[in-house]
Design goal:
The structure is a single chain. It contains 3 helices and 2 strands; from the N terminus they run ββααα. By secondary structure, the chain is mainly α. It has 2 domains: about 35 residues, no CATH class; about 30 residues, no CATH class. A two-stranded antiparallel sheet has the order 1-2. Strand 1 and strand 2 form a beta hairpin. The longest helix has 13 residues. The relative contact order is 0.12.
C-alpha cells in the first residue's frame, strides 16, 4: 500500500483515505491505483457548485470527464 493511501493522526495511528485502500489490504488482487474514488469526485464537484467564489480564489477548476 502506498503512503498516499494513509492519513496520519495526532496519536500516531494511520487511517485509510478510502474504502478501496482498505479493501486492498485484505484482497491482494485489488490495485487501488486502478480505481477512481467516485465519492471524492462528487464531493469536489458539489463543493465547487456550492462555493464557486471560494473555488475560484483557491484556483480550483471543474474536472471534466463526467
Amino acid at each position: 500500500m502506498s503512503k498516499s493511501s494513509l492519513r496520519p493522526e495526532q496519536n500516531g495511528r494511520q487511517w485509510l483515505v478510502n474504502d478501496i485502500a482498505g479493501l486492498s489490504q485484505a484482497v491482494t488482487e485489488i490495485d487501488p491505483s486502478k480505481y477512481v474514488d467516485e465519492q471524492a469526485e462528487d464531493a469536489y464537484e458539489q463543493a465547487l457548485a456550492k462555493w464557486p467564489v471560494m473555488g475560484r480564489l483557491m484556483g480550483l477548476v471543474k474536472r471534466s470527464g463526467k
